[in-house]
Amino acid sequence: GTAQIGVTGLAVMGRNLARNFARNGYTVAVHNRTAARTEALVSEFGEEGAFLPASTPEELVESLERPRRVLVMVKAGAPTDAVIEEFAPLLEEGDMIIDGGNAHFEDTRRREKALRERGIHFVGTGVSGGEEGALRGPSIMPGGSAESYRALGPMLERIAAEADDGAPCTAYMGPDGAGHFVKMVHNGIEYADMQLIAEAYQLLRDVAGYGPARIAEIFRRWNTGRLDSYLIEITAEVLAHVDERTGEPFVDVVLDQAEQKGTGRWTVQAALDLGVPVPGIAEAVFARSLSGHAGLRRASRSLPGPTPAPLGEAAAARFADQVEQALYASKLVSYTQGFHEIRAGSEEYGWEVDPGAVAAIWRAGCIIRAAFLDRVRAAYDGRGDLPSLLSDETFAREIGEAQDDWRAVVAEAARQGVPVPGFAAALAYYDALRAERLPAALVQGQRDYFGAHTYRRTDGEGVFHTLWGGDRSETRED
Ligand code: NDP
To answer: What is the DSSP letter of 11?
Structure first.
């Protein structure tokens, strides 16, 4: 065979990744269950590079040079297992199957183990950037064996997005599920970023009293500063858009019920299993969920509470600046939580994920790409053991400078009855981290009272229980 890579699954993502490889000079074997997609790819884009259409898995495998690289871009879940089972028997020791779909990292761990026992490398790979990113340069998060990365990495580096310093937005994340885990957390952070931006919009609308077009201008301005990011940029575009049917702002004619495909939920589920607090990401998932409960919302609309009263012009301008501070501080907190989860996953599964490398490959190509991520990369540079992103001096100083405005915004939102679960949860997390004493001491007392769950003391070693139902003397339990 002469093709350097084969792609099976030619819907939007697979087709565009195949074109990206071909445009970068690789010979790409292409296959799809339904042959029409393969034919369409070759007839529409055949002149972009060297494609070898294959009508069967056998044909695809035969057209590949060794070690064979088969990129699977089919629907995640059972279809991925089915396609792996089709191809694995056709492959030989040292060949690799790359799953670029949105697989759950536990599935990736299972598949990697099963294929490793058959001598095949399984490279679970997160791909972010959507359809456009797949074509022009996504952020790519590969896991699997270090050996497979040596044979595949250079190709991924050619098709990945490029950061401002020219570095490719892909790097080896770690063994088995590491790549898909990192991609999952990327999406969780994406949910949090989107929710925080949405809350900022709501505050500018209801409390500052601005219309969508004016808010679009504010986001454009913010996008020239430290919030410079793809999500802020597209937010301005969406807010400035006018519905062609009604002439109303687009945002006013869209049903306010957000949907989700599940990767945000996975991030929270994994965090619960790992015991990592990610309330910012969780609130973003819950906010989408709440928005979709139309009946519950309808039944609750008459509950008492304030109706927001917009501020005057001068106060509104000042408030908008405070919202920028609150948004930035809350964003810092959600990245802190996301990187904590990556560290915890890495420790649990022995991946040794380098947080600086993660930040570096998120700088371009993916949905959360942002100038900010170069600063996260710098914070972890040579300091992979940083206890938290907020332990970085620069970020600590910035959040300290933002906190007065952040508190003012959360307080004003509460006073005016504007829900800001993301901002408020981020602030609570920040204050909980700062606290000298947490009421967890009281919770331990309660647990010991009703369940004899025991407690430790501040003034020495040991595990204790108080005889709550008796004379309330203390016994040592260890
Ligand atoms: P879809 O998730 O819509 O999947 C469609 C593709 O899967 C088609 O090629 C289809 O073949 C194939 N397929 C489905 N079931 C089977 C099966 N049992 N056997 C063989 N082939 C099957 O395509 P996308 O391009 O949107 O996404 C591909 C993967 O990339 C998914 O895992 C997705 O989660 C992930 N992803 C998607 C992103 C996006 O923006 N869309 C972004 C990042 C990742 P056929 O044509 O014959 O029906």
So the answer is: S
